[in-house]
Amino acid sequence: MIERQAATNDPPTIALHRQPVIDTTRGHLALLWTARTRTHGTSVGGVDLLTTRAGRITHAWSLTGTRPFRY
């Protein structure tokens, strides 16, 4: 999906699922998302994990699955 999408100028649509989980004491944030290509209609899901310090993102991890989230 990433290679096909990179060959186009059409950005994917991204939907966030539920509310982000935020730990203000440790400065951690997690969110679930689904991305769908506009050109091919392919969807994948993932989770992003962020670490913040002094109001800025210091680390980011993005874990992408092979299919969209289903509830």
Descriptors:
single chain, 71 residues, mainly beta
Compact summary:
The protein is mainly beta.
Outline the structure in words:
The protein has 71 residues and is mostly beta strands. A hairpin with a 4-residue loop joins strand 1 (13-23) and strand 2 (28-36). A four-stranded antiparallel sheet has the order 1-2-3-4, with no helix packed on it. It has one helix at residues 2-6, and strands spanning 13-23, 28-36, 43-53, 56-64. The protein has one helix and four strands, in the order αββββ. 7% of the residues lie in helices and 56% in strands. The model has no long low-confidence stretch (mean pLDDT 85).
Low-confidence stretches: none
Largest sheet: 4 strands, antiparallel
End-to-end span in angstroms? 22 Å
User: How much of the polypeptide forms β-strand, as a percent range?
Assistant: over 45%
Tally of DSSP β-strands: 4
Structural class: mainly beta
H-E order: HEEEE
Mean pLDDT: 85
State the strand order across the main sheet.
1-2-3-4
Radius of gyration: 14 Å
Global morphology: elongated
Q: Report the total helices.
A: 1
Helix content: under 10%
